[in-house]
Specification:
With 226 residues, this protein is α/β, with parallel strands linked by helices. The protein contains 7 helices and 7 strands. Strands 3-2-1-4-5-7-6 form a 7-stranded mixed beta sheet, sandwiched between helices. Strand 1, helix 1 and strand 2 form a beta-alpha-beta unit.
């Protein structure tokens, strides 16, 4: 069982897009599970075992659990089989909220991951099915941004991660094969710190992370907006 499931196409996607928010949720006592649809391999400086070890360390830093599905990196595609594999996870974990990738991106895997996650959310509630687990429909779905496009989009809300931005950066540094060994990506961690500072500035705090919702967001009290 989990309160929240955060879905990414690859290990490090969730950390890039919402690592500070994950750290904040786990610090508040929520059970958070990161679900990577693929192992992220092949990459120039990675291996399956290395990526899994890095992902496990990053999840530990964030205080979250983690699992990796069997879908293929680089060839991720929204299919019945992919939706079913993820839906069975949702039926098992029964989260109230899921976070999924932003659907607009240059990376085809990220676009597919968003579609798979939305489809799996619907599939998870099926009754007459051979899927394992019992029906479950996550009440809310939010998109986080970890994209390969230089997008500027108006978020539905921004989470104040001023107290957890350093944890986010520490989790990202766990991916040495991606952000240290790979010289092309050595600027990613500083870039993520700068982005967090920019989003924080938008809401008058030190650091923030943007999120997007296709549906209206309800609040229980006006003080939740402060």
């Amino acid at each position: 069982m989990a309160d929240v499931v955060c879905i990414g196409a690859h290990p490090d996607d969730v950390e890039i897009g919402m690592g500070g928010t994950v750290a904040q949720m786990t610090a508040q006592g929520l059970d958070v599970v990161i679900v990577d649809l693929t192992d992220g391999e092949p990459t120039p400086h990675g291996t399956h075992d290395l990526r899994m070890a890095e992902a496990a360390r990053a999840a530990h830093v964030l205080g979250a659990a983690r699992m990796t599905l069997t879908l293929p990196n680089r060839y991720l595609f929204d299919s019945v089989e992919a939706r079913t594999e993820l839906a069975e996870v949702l039926r098992s974990l029964k989260p109230r909220v899921i976070f999924v990738p932003f659907p607009e991106d240059a990376h085809p895997d990220h676009i597919a991951a968003a579609a798979i996650a939305r489809g799996a959310r619907f599939y998870a509630k099926f009754t007459k099915t051979e899927m394992s687990g019992t029906p479950h429909y996550p009440a809310r779905v939010y998109h986080y941004m970890a994209v390969h496009l230089r997008l500027v989009r108006e978020p539905s809300f921004v989470v104040d991660i001023s107290k957890s931005v350093d944890v986010k950066l520490d989790a990202l540094r766990c991916y040495e094969s991606q952000f240290r060994t790979n010289e092309a990506n050595q600027g990613i961690v500083p870039m993520m710190e700068a982005a967090a500072r920019m989003w924080g500035m938008q809401i008058g705090v030190t650091a923030g992370e943007p999120f997007f919702s296709a549906e209206p967001i309800g609040i229980r009290a006006v003080t939740d907006l402060v």
